[in-house]
């Protein structure tokens, strides 16, 4: 006879056949710990009752949902099947190397709550996230993967190598290089060229559309006048930092 106690219930099963040496108990509550005892029966007489093990069931697989994203954070929450006893959750994330300038960095954290905001992520990057529940008996199956992009942000660095390449009495031609990939924070859609008479405090802007356009000519300038010129990259989140 196999008897069990735990999870607020108890029961027993009689197993026929002296050669039987295994049996599966069903109807137990996930996450609970059970005391299981086995006693041999012969001619309706019970032998000694021997406790053979204490068994705890691992939690069920978490079900995850995405709550919100910003440029540098992802918030998600999850639940486990009813009856699961959980002591902690492991959240793991990986940055996708196929998007943007990712180097495939990974991270993880262990918490007891059923929601979490992952901080300090990279802008405009795709992350895959999983959650695993655990208790004293072990770990659940890993949740389905949540795949999500962080939002774009304005470039935090200016274009490289801003250079004046030609000057006439009324025009200045300026060239620049790309913003380093790691600082683009999204797809570059164009550039903003800001210029003004040196020391005047007044500026104007020339908009250059297209990520591959890295030159423009500023026209209708005043002869024999010194101008300051700065260039910034633009993406869908806004205008980035101007060169100095």
Automatic annotation (TrEMBL):
Record keywords, A-Z: Receptor, Repeat
Pfam families according to UniProt: fn3
Extent of the signal sequence: none
InterPro entries named among the record's database cross-references: FN3_dom, FN3_sf, Ig-like_fold, Striated_Muscle_Regulatory
CDD domains per the UniProt record, alphabetical: FN3
All residue ranges annotated as the Fibronectin type-III domain in the record: 58-153, 158-244
Protein name: Receptor-type tyrosine-protein phosphatase S
């Amino acid at each position: 006879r196999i008897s069990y106690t735990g999870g607020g219930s108890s029961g027993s099963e009689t197993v026929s056949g002296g050669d039987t040496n295994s049996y599966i108990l069903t109807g137990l509550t996930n996450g609970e710990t059970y005391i299981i005892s086995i006693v041999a029966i012969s001619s309706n007489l019970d032998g000694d009752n021997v406790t053979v093990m204490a068994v705890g069931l691992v939690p069920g697989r978490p079900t995850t949902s995405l709550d919100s994203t910003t440029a540098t954070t992802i918030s998600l929450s999850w639940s486990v099947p009813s009856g699961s006893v959980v002591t902690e959750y492991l959240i793991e994330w990986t940055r996708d190397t196929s998007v943007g300038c990712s180097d495939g960095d990974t991270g993880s954290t262990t918490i007891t709550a059923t929601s979490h905001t992952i901080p300090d992520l990279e802008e405009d990057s795709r992350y895959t996230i999983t959650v695993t529940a655990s208790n004293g008996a072990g770990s659940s199956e890993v949740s389905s993967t949540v795949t999500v992009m962080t939002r774009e942000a304005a470039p935090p660095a200016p274009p490289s190598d801003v250079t004046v390449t030609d000057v006439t009495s009324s025009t200045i031609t300026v060239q620049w290089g790309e913003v380093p990939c790691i600082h683009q924070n999204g797809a570059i859609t164009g550039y903003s060229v800001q210029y003004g008479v040196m020391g005047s405090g007044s500026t104007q802007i020339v908009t250059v559309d297209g990520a591959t356009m890295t030159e423009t000519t500023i026209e209708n300038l005043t002869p024999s006048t010194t101008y300051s010129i700065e260039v910034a990259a633009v993406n869908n989140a806004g205008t980035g930092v101007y060169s100095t």
